TrEMBL record, chain A:
Belongs to the class-II aminoacyl-tRNA synthetase family. Phe-tRNA synthetase alpha subunit type 1 subfamily. It comes from the Bacteria. It is found in: Cytoplasm. InterPro entries: aa-tRNA-synth_II, aa-tRNA-synth_II/BPL/LPL, Phe-tRNA-synth_IIc_asu, Phe-tRNA_ligase_II_N, Phe_tRNA_ligase_alpha1_bac, Phenylalanyl-tRNA_Synthase, tRNA-bd_arm. This is Phenylalanine--tRNA ligase alpha subunit. It comes from Ferrimicrobium acidiphilum. Gene3D superfamilies: Bira Bifunctional Protein, Domain 2 (3.30.930.10). NCBIfam families: pheS. It holds the Pfam family Phe_tRNA-synt_N. Residues 126-342 form the Aminoacyl-transfer RNA synthetases class-II family profile domain. The gene is pheS. Keywords: Aminoacyl-tRNA synthetase, ATP-binding, Coiled coil, Cytoplasm, Ligase, Magnesium, Metal-binding, Nucleotide-binding, Protein biosynthesis. Mg(2+) binds at E267. GO terms for molecular function: phenylalanine-tRNA ligase activity. Residues 71-98 form a coiled coil.
Amino acid sequence: MAEIDASLEELTDFCARSATMLQTARTTEELVAIKEQIHARTSPLATLSKAMRNLPPKDRPRVGSMLHEARAELEAALKAAETRVNELELSARLAAEHDDIANYLYPGRLRGTGALHLITQTRMILEDLFTSMGFMVAEGPEVETEFHNFEALNIPKYHPARANQDSFYLNYGEPESTLLRTHTSPVQIRLMQSRTPPIYAVVPGRVYRRDTPDARHTPAFHQLEALVVDRGISFAHLKATIETFTRAYFGPGIQARLRPAYFPFTEPSAEFEITCTICGGDGCRTCSGTGWIELGGSGMVHPKVFAHVGIDPEEYSGFAFGFGIDRLAQMKVALKDMRILPDNDLRVLAQMRGVL
Amino acid sequence: MRITLSWLAEFLDLECLFDLQEALRVGPSHAGVRRLVDAMNELGMVVEGVEHARASLDGVVVGQVVSLEPIEGADKIRATLVDDGRGEPKSVVCGAWNFQVGDKVPWAQPGVTLPTGMTLSERKMRGVTSLGMLCSPIEVGVSTEAGGLLVLDPRTPVGVAFGEHFRIFDDVVIDLAIEANRPDANCVMGVARDLAAWLKVDFIAPKQSRLPVNVEADPLNDPQACDRLVVAKLTGVALASFELWRSRRLRLAGMRSISPVVDASNYVMLELGTPTHPYDAARLAGESVAARFARPGEQIVTLDGSTRMLEPSDIVIVDGDDRIAGLAGVMGGLDTEVSDRTSSVLVEAAHFPAARIARTAKRLNARSEASARFERGTDPAILELAIERVAALANLTLVGSLSERINVLSTPVAIEVRSARVIAMLGQEAPLAVLAPGGPLERIGFAIEEKGGDYLVTAPSFRPDVTTEIEVIEEVARHFGYQRIGSTPLSIAVGGGLTERQQLIRRLKAMLAGMGVFEAWSVTIVSEEERDLAGGARDPIRLADPLVANECEFRQTVLAGLLRSLRVNVSRRVAPVALFELGPVVHPNPDPGAPLPDEHLRLGVLIEGGENGLVVIAPVVTALSRLLGLEGRLSVGEASGTLEGWPDLHPSRASVLRVDDRLVGVVGELHPRQIPSELTHLVDGRFGYLEVDFEPLVAGMVPLGELRIPSIYTASTLDLSFSVPRDYAIEPLVRMVTDRVGDLLSDVMIFDRFEPVEEPLRIYVGVRLRLEAPTGVVEDEVIQSLIEAIDQAAQEMGVQLRRA
């Protein structure tokens, strides 16, 4: 009898000791060791279980239930300890994995995404603006015939306007028969030759003039030209279109105005100006104190141009206007020297990642 | 063109608008001047600058030199005593040598600040006191040149204020840009006439010439070369004079003073727009001139000393012996130039066909103020007035009468201007008022006759640019005011937007930028060196006359343009380089009859990487084929030797790209020679390069058709290792594997390349296959049989599947 009680006491002790150890265990290794002790064949649990069959039957239920309780108690404690140790260990591992995002925020200026060119981005903004108004976008070759670039635009040989647009002629075909286009206007001719009105198109593209490069001019630059040919088109439509486009691009505070000018391929012709974007019209150095800056040329398509492309000027009328894309880009980003653009210095290109 | 306000006021009643004298004193900020400037701008005579030209002559008096002595030890200056009529003559040291005792000269006394900005004081030079300075024409602002002091008319009273006596006052200079279609506005009178109509003030027309004119037709004149020519013989050249205040206007207008006769001729050209030319009468046979076309082989030495070979399209002025005396409308001849010995001049005023003059002036590179006016069109009706004015301004005397040697001017034709057309072009009815009696066009000088609601409009002789209805409509719009014309928004009934091709270009560029590549704008015109460095060019097309030697021909590869950007970045130690450009290349046209060369769009992508340029450029090829739906159809093949029209690349790291067997581009690593040797020490990595034609890619493009639904079962991965010869082309092997696996294959990836030490001639290539089936996991037996099949096929290709 006393022997049983002693064994039971030992079991209780064992359970209490194990429970304490489980509560204080800090690592999986410790837990494994405790678990081994609990499940060892020499543990009071095992010895008492083994002794059960030699016990008098009357004692068996009591011992059995105690054994059962002890086992359940230890299993529960083990489980809790495992959960606690896992948690501890995870925390410790995560703590050890400390890192800082800032370690990765300095990849070097040229790493990461690239960028579209400033001119492309400006061109896209303009294309989107005009396509939203219902225009299509047309393109043409950079190498043009003298006919498309001059003759069909009512600029015959020896016309003073040819001297104003000093050209790069090619050694190709007859002398002075092919050249790098001096404006995007030859695409007007190509459009009118290949389509029947109505035509509502804008033509962006690169053009070339024999100018010595300076801060504001490069021999190659970009223009955008608009051409409208339809029934009933008037100078009033031209004015409204220029006003709409300049307001949409530069903002509602910007006014546009037209003043008489001369272009061989339009009549009446007009230069268009906008409120100086630097001073808002008060007058500053950029606008030479006038409050206005010149943006481009415009006018009603000349009947002689229509004659060259076989459009009846009594049935159709139209307008055209054009301006420099580079100039608009330059205004957006306050670029002081245009000559750096063809260099493609990546330190410049990398700045073009930003929103224009 | 620079004109002055005081000059303009001689032709325009400005006094009724503002106080002219006040405006001249106050300058550009004066409200009246600003109003004029606005008016000129609105009329299309664009004001490019307004300057205040102050006389700055207070304290400059007329002095008479009463003694002239050398200064001991000085050989450049002399001592003078000058009398200003107030007390004793005073000492002034002078460095000029063109005067003598008794001469009257402008004397700037101490305290005066001259127009040149110089302020004078009393000082000593070589021990001699100098009270101010005796002045040259430059110093008193009447000329840009001087050969010494300005020696004045001996009749000038001593001691008078120089500026007031010679009527030199403050003025305002207006710099105008006159458009090519406004020949009338190339002179003070024309600007005034246009302004008068706009401002509704009186135009003060010059009085018509009252000189007698004899009609003496000269058969030497060719009516095709000149339709009106008037000459006059003027004498008294030795005594000719030209008033100082007019000289000053010439200077303010930007012209040099030459001699009274030439200055008067120039003055009249600026004032009336009519060039005249004075010849030394004694040097003209028969004291006569006529105009005809040059004959083959003829030549002339012009005023500037150049010998000019003439062509039959040039118009020349000849004398009575048919000897060439001048290049009509462009420049006079040296032989007949007015000189010190000239006693009388023959002044010619004529009207020439504008296009001929333009052609000659351009061909001979001899544009002058006169040719600029003739080539835009001059007024043939005021030739007599011009000659009379030259004579009057230079103080010359007409001998006999003016002589008209030809006059075959055609009568101006009335232009029919339809009201409906005016309204249709300008979008409103109000501008028709410009055509009304007493309206602006009539005030300018247009003859307008109303006829059944429409108009018959005859342009005045000074508006040769107005010959058609639309040109009249432009004048109507201009004088109505562009700013008063209303705005009517378009209502566009057709659809616009970007084409698929244009959208594809945007997608492509955005993709490349997303991959870390920057869009470049590189040059289409390259140097011979860049062309040779890039390679592949054939019969390059050159510019006829390049601006700079390093931009002389069209690139045939994008690389030829990008190489310059590469050099820029490498030399500045900017790395890694990652550039792309979608731009044109220009090749000779295979069709010999085509008017233009073959210009087409190409994409070039240049990326700097590590030890192997292929590693960095390959992802671009992959991305491109995925974007365009070309996976499986864009194939790489070995590039052998130079490909015409395509850049040369690293000989054993280059491939050609084909879509459905059509060559579309090349890809590989830059040849080491393409990096300039002086920069190689700045380069860390190799450069991968891709160049493809854009159009065949678009043509071969397959848009995303249908999104496939992937298997929901766990996929199997099969890693295969092949032992292949070192120079083995990998693509056929990959194709074989993908063919064998067929529909089960959802992805293939080369995950390893290993160079075994024990087999130096071979490479182990690791290929990872992802296998999926729509109905379940892929069974082991299936995989085993695939391995067997691949093994066998590999052996047939001379490749060994390495099996455990």
